[in-house]
């Protein structure tokens, strides 16, 4: 029995007991085929759940080849900057870009990938965190593996465990660890973390790196120091409000994304808490607005546009059956006015 996710045109021809050329003519809509042969091919294709190689057809005959980009939320300045890099690389290659936002819903990501296969995308870029979810991993791989075998190209931005495709990986873990060291250097010894859902690999990596940096200085984070909410501005505000309601004694708060830090800044202002006079605040990513805030946000700068550009270049230059490649992009700690040296060491 042929595995459903590995069905090829050759499999359909074999089951229907016709030539490969005949199977191709039937499935491509050619009318000059005997009716009995057509019926056999269509029955075999239905029984095997065969999906035509539409992306290969597009490469051969489309006047405007397209690439698909699936991101978490294009309205988020982080992903907007990444998308600019993708668009820049696509424009150089004369490609149109189809852009979809999943709003961090794993099921939507799988559905969009399936749609892009049917829409004849010649390459797919997944721009965003993976999920700590084995069922999602298997479902996504089931979409991408036959797509790649048929000629489609794939690249991802971020860490996607067990997904064997080309990737561009920001150094989230080492960047957060370096940030912890810089904040320790300002004299801070009591910390809180505003975290996104720890089902996302990006959140896990940043949180783990920050905790490791503190642990090397003998400072341990407990669950009482972690305030988890959605991985966006509203989540940052909600997490900061929870932090404030508990009268936590932290002198420095790390939000695992700049968007969460912006929400936290709003919550601190509403509560009459001065940043950095009462509490220091740091984010991660260096979205364009970070330096224009008042106070300017301490963060870890990532080359956001380069992430998108390099992912697209990998997708366009790779081979479907070749060994997957990884490009790592380092972050840089930027100490700005939202963090200050503590008045005394604790």
UniProtKB/TrEMBL annotation:
PROSITE patterns: HTH_LACI_1, HTH_LACI_2. Signal peptide: none annotated. Keywords: DNA-binding, Transcription, Transcription regulation. Pfam families: LacI, Peripla_BP_3. It comes from the Bacteria. Transmembrane segments: none annotated. One of its GO terms (molecular function) is DNA-binding transcription factor activity. Gene3D superfamilies: 3.40.50.2300, lambda repressor-like DNA-binding domains. Residues 7-61 form the HTH lacI-type domain. This is LacI family transcriptional regulator. It comes from Amycolatopsis sacchari.
């Amino acid at each position: 029995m042929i595995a459903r996710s590995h069905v090829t045109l050759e499999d359909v021809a074999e089951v229907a007991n016709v030539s490969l050329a005949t199977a191709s003519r039937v499935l491509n809509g050619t009318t000059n085929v005997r009716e009995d042969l057509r019926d056999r091919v269509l029955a075999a294709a239905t029984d095997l759940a065969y999906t035509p190689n539409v992306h290969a057809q597009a490469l051969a005959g489309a006047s405007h080849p397209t690439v698909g980009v699936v991101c978490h939320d294009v309205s988020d300045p982080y992903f907007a900057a990444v998308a600019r890099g993708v668009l820049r690389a696509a424009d150089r290659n004369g490609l149109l870009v189809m852009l979809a936002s999943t709003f961090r819903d794993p099921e939507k990501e799988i559905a969009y990938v399936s749609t892009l296969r049917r829409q004849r995308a010649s390459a797919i870029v997944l721009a965003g965190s993976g999920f700590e979810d084995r069922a999602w991993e298997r479902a996504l791989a089931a979409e991408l593996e036959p797509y790649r075998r048929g000629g489609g190209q794939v690249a991802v931005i971020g860490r996607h465990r067990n997904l064997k495709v080309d990737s561009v990986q920001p150094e989230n873990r080492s960047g957060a660890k370096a940030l912890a060291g810089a904040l320790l250097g300002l004299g801070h010894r009591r910390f809180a973390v505003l975290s996104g859902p720890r089902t996302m690999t990006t959140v896990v990596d940043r949180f783990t790196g920050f905790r490791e940096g503190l642990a090397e200085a003998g400072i341990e984070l407990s669950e009482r120091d972690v305030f988890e909410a959605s991985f966006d501005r509203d989540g940052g505000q909600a997490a900061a409000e929870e932090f404030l309601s508990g009268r936590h004694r932290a002198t420095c708060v790390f939000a695992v994304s700049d968007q969460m830090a912006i929400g936290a800044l709003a919550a601190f202002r509403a509560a009459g808490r001065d940043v950095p006079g009462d509490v220091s605040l740091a984010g991660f990513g260096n979205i364009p607005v970070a330096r224009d805030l008042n106070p300017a946000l301490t963060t870890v700068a990532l080359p956001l546009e380069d992430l998108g550009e390099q992912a697209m270049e990998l997708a366009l230059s790779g081979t479907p059956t070749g060994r997957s490649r990884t490009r790592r992009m380092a972050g840089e700690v930027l100490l700005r006015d939202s963090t200050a040296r503590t008045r005394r060491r604790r």
